[in-house]
Amino acid sequence: MGVEGCTKCIKYLLFVFNFIFWLAGGIILGVALWLRHDSQTTNILYLQLGEKQAPNTFYVGIYILIAVGAVMMFVGFLGCYGAIQESQCLLGTFFTCLVILFACEVAAGIWGFVNKDQIAKDVKQFYDQAFQQALMADSESNNGKAVVKTFHETLDCCGPDSTIAASPLVWKDDLCPKKDFLKNLVENSSCHRKIDELFSGKLYLIGIAAIVVAVIMIFEMILSMVLCCGIRNSSVY
């Protein structure tokens, strides 16, 4: 015999929440794939300066997001099916998966919070090294100039900071598009600031998605346990 009364309402409410959870997993997967193939990040993080590769800490977080999105879609489907079938076994498995997923999200959030400034810092250090090589007399023998030009064209910036950019002794205007050289000096579009904006904006988007998903998971864990108890009690009568 199926559940009745309030427990039946919880059953369909859990189904709706799981459908939203499944959609959220698909959205996170799509956003992660977009971030992974976004032209700004790929142009910068695929660069290589001599034997040194650009920092890939940002991509580690993206791969975690891809895995989380895929698992969320599977768990959401499991929850929908378990709620409709009123299966204690499936709901118990669903609850266990939610707890594990929630713990992984908390761990990933802590990792992201700890490394959020380090990501931009590593990329800025990589840019500074390329910039210094591009200013060397023998810069034609290395790819520093090509790396710097990629940064400037991708981020629409010019130089690491305004002091260096304005100094005629160290600056080579051929590293920036000539038509934008004066504009960049006036607007103070330093590449350090642009790098900070690039990664802080993307991490802000990821943080909002993580908070929304965490709230949905907490509601689902509560509803799944209430429904599981309701199914157990209804089977007694």
Describe the structure.
- Disulfide bonds join 157-191, 158-176.
- This protein is mainly alpha-helical.
- β1 and β2 (52-53) form a beta hairpin.
- The protein has a single domain (6-235), classed as Cd81 Antigen, Extracellular Domain, Chain: A.
- It is built from 8 helices and 2 strands; from the N terminus they run ααββαααααα.
- α1 (6-37) runs antiparallel to α3 (57-85) and α4 runs antiparallel to α8 (191-236).
- It is 80% helix and 2% strand.
- Mean pLDDT is 76; it is low at 165-171.
Specify Rg, calculated over alpha carbons.
Answer: 25 Å
Helix content: over 70%
- Which structural class fits the helix and strand makeup? mainly alpha
Which CATH architecture is right? Answer: Orthogonal Bundle
CATH class: Mainly Alpha
Strand order of the largest sheet: 1-2
Summarize the SSE layout with pairings:
Elements lengths: L5 H32 L1 H7 L2 E2 L2 E2 L3 H29 L2 H48 L8 H12 L6 H5 L11 H10 L3 H46 L1
Antiparallel strand pairs: 1-2
Family: Belongs to the tetraspanin (TM4SF) family.
GO biological process, one term: adaptive immune response
InterPro entries: Tetraspanin/Peripherin, Tetraspanin_animals, Tetraspanin_CS, Tetraspanin_EC2_sf
